[in-house]
Amino acid sequence: MIPKLYVFVAFVAFYLFSMAADAQDKKMRNVILLLSCLVLAYFAGARDPMLWSDTFTYITDFLFANDIFNFSFSDPIIGYVEGGFHFLVVIIKSFTDNSTTYLVVVSLLSFYFIYKGLQRYSIYPMLGLCIYISRFMIGRNMMQIRSCLAIAIIISFTYLVKEKKWWAYFFVLLLCYNLHHSSLVAAPLLFLCVRGYSFSQKQIYWGIIISMIMAQFFGGVVRSWVTSSDYIMNMADDYMREGSEKAYANDLTNPVIWFQTIVLLMFTYYEERLKKATPYYYVFRNAYFMSTVMLIVLCQYAVVAGRTSTLFATYECMIIPLFFKLFKKDEYIILHAIIGAGLLFMFYMNWPSIISHIWNVY
């Protein structure tokens, strides 16, 4: 059993390692990023299925699935409804009956697209990977592997939005919708892509203020709308029911809300300086603004707020590294210390003590 303290020490060590890795030339940096993603993919895939939510259900579906030679579209799907992901299960089942191999393969696919996204969009990809580990890895790669794969694919194809290739982006969303229905959350970015529209600074500031007011004073209206939405009900299922201990777990005191709000406001305020650092500035900002609004307005439904906002929140892995463009090089250590402390706090919030039992025999 690995003491919990060792896990945090390992994260701090990896964060320090990422600082050194991002200082290397692009070719070496990409090699380090690829190797890190491979290690993390195995780490996530070799987890103990009995200790992680949803994993046992995925394994059950895999064990009862047919291979490609005996597959039928009428075959039952256990634990979820998306036929696209089940077809991926069928393909994997055609090569192996080992459930751990199945989890590792899905994890490798997810981390491949994570790697491609960080490589293409993040100026410091290893720092972006640290952000991903701290903020998103436990909920996605360890539990919600369908949404994890779908989100990773959508993020990796962000360039289609920038290039206004909306038909191609539409087919990406269609594919991902068949992996996990929550991919529909990315549809607004498709409409902004078609129209070539970006939210202005003033719209973002007012949008945050109005969202806060709605969350604080009109929670009952939001609650009524959420419970009447079949799409949201299906996405969150048992977390939504009145009386569930998780149904109204959070409010505006949720530190993630303030974390995202601060990141968004900084990213917006320094528009003139940061838009020169990346051609994807407005794509990132549009998406992250929508994520933050959803997180605030739906805050009374902790799980729903998280699941609807998490897709676009992934752009933090590209946004936060850009803040280094606001500092002189001799001041980088200060920003590294601030970001590192914030990520360690998020890591502490997200990673439970059962991480010490994560390894399974492969």
Name its key features:
362 residues; 67% helix; 20 helices; mainly alpha
In short:
This protein is mainly α.
- Overall number of strands: 0
Number of helices, where a helix is a run of at least 4 consecutive DSSP H or I residues? 20
Q: Biggest β-sheet: count, sense, barrel?
A: none
As residue ranges, the low-confidence spans are 238-249, 356-362
User: How big is the Rg?
Assistant: 20 Å
Beta-strand content estimate = under 5%
Report the order of strands and helices: HHHHHHHHHHHHHHHHHHHH
Instruction: Note the gap between the termini.
Output: 17 Å
In round numbers, the mean pLDDT is 84
SSE class: mainly alpha
Q: Per the principal axes of the C-alpha atoms, what is the gross shape? A: globular
Can you give the helix content as a percent range?
Answer: 55-70%
Give the helix/strand layout.
Blueprint: H1 4-22, H2 26-45, H3 55-64, H4 83-93, H5 99-121, H6 125-135, H7 137-140, H8 145-156, H9 159-162, H10 166-177, H11 187-195, H12 201-217, H13 219-227, H14 230-236, H15 255-269, H16 271-274, H17 281-297, H18 302-313, H19 316-322, H20 332-350
Helix pairs in contact: 1-6, 1-20, 2-5, 5-6, 5-8, 6-19, 6-20, 8-10, 10-11, 12-15, 12-17, 15-17, 17-18
Describe the overall structure:
The protein is mainly α and 362 residues long. It has helices at 4-22, 26-45, 55-64, 83-93, 99-121, 125-135, 137-140, 145-156, 159-162, 166-177, 187-195, 201-217, 219-227, 230-236, 255-269, 271-274, 281-297, 302-313, 316-322, 332-350. Helix 6 (125-135) runs parallel beside helix 20 (332-350), helix 10 packs antiparallel against helix 11 and helix 17 packs antiparallel against helix 18 (302-313). The radius of gyration is 20 Å and the shape is globular.
